[in-house]
Write a structure and sequence with these properties.
The protein contains no helices and 20 strands. With 312 residues, the protein is mainly beta. Strands 7-8-9-10 form a four-stranded antiparallel beta sheet, with no helix packed on it. A four-stranded antiparallel beta sheet has the order 17-18-19-20, with no helix packed on it. Strand 5 and strand 6 form a beta hairpin.
Length: 312
């Protein structure tokens, strides 16, 4: 049995909510149908699963990829690629509230010739809203940012290249507990690179890599803001989960990469994570048989619980 009796999913994204809610998770099945579930209170009980009309009518069909993040105002915005890899979005009317309705295809004046394969976004501080990244079909990382907490978005621009002029296959981002953003990408060699904002609301620093902080070769990555700063997870060549977390918010002090199966995680190929609006984090993973599992931190102290359902 899957976590919260989830349908069979193959793509995931999640975001911390604001207001009186906790986190929200979205998943896509093999037919491209989107399902979602949310925490009714921070760290609390979960709703039932909702189908593709959860965000209103006119929703995109046959979703291919998705990403979600809070804006600077605390409301959540979600982006999806449809079957033609056209970009759509929907956002909350207020933190923890309802949804405005779908906009797309071609959100933010996205040129029809621009096609993404992977997406990520993170909330920013310092008077900013959020930043969004997409990997194009030729492996280029392209981005736009929200100029104010709920304001308009900047034009599309290619993100700074690595010294190796990397082509990208995966990307993830999170805040670091002090308002600064951090972002990581996997290149076509499955090498991990990382970068972060030099100051709150400031410019992005140089890329650190390849194999950021001694990371193994990875298949997939996910990140979230935890009680001590950012946390990043990955799945190695053998589908085993590894993790690295910041010891102090916004610093270069990290725990180091875990060995073995992190917290007895199931062998998995897809993962996502989000804060629960109580200072603690929840993580989800799809195992190699297509079953959804989850593990959450609980207060006080945000110690990790156990996987639900347990590893087989």
């Amino acid at each position: 049995m899957a976590w919260q009796n989830a349908p069979t999913l193959n793509k995931l994204t999640a975001s911390r909510q604001g207001g009186n809610r906790g986190a929200q998770l979205w998943g896509v099945d093999y037919k491209g149908t989107v399902y979602t579930i949310y925490q009714k209170t921070p760290g609390g009980e979960w709703s039932g699963w909702s189908g593709p009309d959860w965000g209103g009518p006119g929703y995109p069909k046959q979703v291919y990829e998705l990403a979600a993040a809070q804006q600077g105002s605390g409301g959540v915005q979600i982006w999806v690629l449809d079957g033609k890899r056209q970009l759509w979005t929907n956002r909350q009317t207020q933190p923890g509230g309802g949804w405005e309705g779908w906009r797309g295809p071609g959100w933010n004046s996205m040129p029809g010739s621009l096609k993404f394969t992977k997406l990520t976004a993170t909330r920013l501080a310092g008077g900013q809203g959020a930043q969004f990244w997409g990997i194009t079909d030729n492996g280029i990382l392209t981005s736009c940012s929200q100029i104010a907490p709920t304001g308009s978005w900047s034009p599309w621009t290619d993100f700074k290249p690595t010294p190796e002029k990397s082509q990208w296959i995966e990307v993830t981002a999170a805040q670091q507990g002090d308002g600064k953003g951090a972002m990581w990408g996997l290149d076509t060699k499955r090498q991990l690179w990382g970068t972060g904002q030099a100051s709150v609301g400031g410019a992005w620093g140089a890329w650190n890599g390849p194999n950021w902080l001694g990371a193994p070769k990875l298949r997939n990555i996910a990140a979230a803001e935890g009680p001590n700063g950012a946390i990043i997870w990955g799945q190695d060549e053998d589908y085993r989960m590894v993790a690295n977390f910041q010891v102090k918010p916004g610093t270069n002090e990290w725990s180091g990469w875990s060995s073995g199966d992190w917290h007895d995680a199931p062998l998995s190929y897809e993962l996502t994570a989000a804060g629960q609006n109580n200072g603690c984090v929840q993580l989800w993973a799809i195992d190699l048989t297509g079953v959804l599992h989850s593990i959450a931190q609980t207060p006080p102290g945000c110690a990790w619980g156990t996987w639900q359902p347990p590893r087989r």
